[in-house]
Amino acid sequence: MSKGVDEIFRRAKEGQPLFVERNALSPEYVPDRLPFRDEQAGAVAEVLAPVLHDSKPSNLLLYGKTGTGKTAVARYVISRLRKEAEIKQLATAYVNTRLANTEYRTLALFADALGLPQEKRIPFTGLAIGEVMDRIFEHIRLTEARVVLVLDEIDYLVKTFGDETLYKFTRSNERLSPGFVALVGISNDLKFKEGLDPRVLSSLSEEEIVFPPYTVDELREILTARAKTAFRPGVASPAAINLCAAIAGSEHGDARRAIDLLRIAGEVAEREGLREIDDTCIRRASDKMEHDRVEEALRSLPIQNKAILLAVSKFKSGTNTGELYLAYANICRRIGIEALTQRRVSGILAELDLLGLIEASVVSKGRRGRTKKIQLLIGSEALQKTLLEDAALASLE
User: Fold this and answer.
1) Which of 103, 107, 212, 267 has the most CB atoms at less than 10 Å from its CB?
2) Rounded mean pLDDT of 275-295?
3) What is the residue extent of each domain of the chain?
């Protein structure tokens, strides 16, 4: 075993690295200029500009499909706002709620960004949500902080844990004065607001900006600029960049996928000892990304969604909603959670369909009406292996 590892390290030392600045192809990288997003960046800046006059700006929601530049624009504008602001009380925070994974962790990361004093720090676990919010609000009130909070994938927070936390933030400013919290929500779901409580909608009083997908030509220019920073000259040829842009452009103009694809293709080429990225490297990178995307999507699902997917996986040739619900209810009983209503399960099936994990199509049965035919679109063995990593489902193994 050690010989194999040593051989890998020897090849790595002897080979010429293809990357100059690998970070330029990472999701966290924010370039000095955001091509084709000047209009959206300007609109976000217009909404947040009142902070510079010590006034609370409107809450803001940024919509658009994955990889359309929402997060990059938000982080870029926030960084520029910090540079321009003269008020010492300005505080900014960015939290991705899906990566935080829980409501408690989302609030704890927000508190860390605010810099709560040691005696008021939020522990890794152990406090009630109400106590965590009270500590955050007390700190903002005592320091008179003017806070801009960016909640990325805000729809995940609301769909998984409800909208009570969002409601408290939107109604908090009276008790925080002269401090305040302005929210910038980022969502891939254009229908995100439809599930909000009317009280939240009323107090949110937000402005909205929709981000269109990138075209293939725009993706090509974005990749060309990133490649110049990330690679040695000649590593990413125009042909390689064109192929990456074409693959990502066929999937709704996803710049994040295009950049990741180029980075992974560069890593494949580097491991193979090549001097430039070729078509084979890009195809292998695309296959790896698809596999990783499915696993990541599965691991991030709420427990009810996982139970429904496991129920679907029991039917090799597909099933209908009635049979599926019985299998799902049995799984819930075995793992000790309460089964959702059939109507809610139908809604989750639609969400899983959008994620590309299942296909739920309506089939006519003539005079007997219509039913849904539900079919798993990914390998059942890989699905079960990934889902059974969840401690709550481990007993099903």
Assistant:
1) 107
2) 85
3) 38-210, 214-297, 301-396
